[in-house]
Design brief:
The chain is α+β, with helices and mostly antiparallel strands. The chain is 29% helix and 39% strand.
Length: 107
Amino acid sequence: MSNQQEDQAKTTSKSNVQYPVSPQFKVLEGYDIYRSDKLIIALVVVDGSFGRDLRMYRWQMRNNAWKVDLCRMSVAGWEWEEISAKARELIQRYEIKRKGKSAETAE
């Protein structure tokens, strides 16, 4: 497989990711913050009756169906640079160890 085919396959697989949002929204794109067989945390761009929005979701698998679990809110107005900087500051200050698959590459 050529590099171009590999890139296209990666793009295709990302665009085929399913997000179980309400039928009132059309999913335009999403980014998985975390995904397992039982939990999805993601940023999702949706188009609905009030226009486009960036929303954060957390779904949990219950009884073989994805259910919204505590989080389904608009985050478009959040100060992302400030949030990112504060998260980095707190992680360093309290010497919090990175967890998950990206822990090895984050160092």
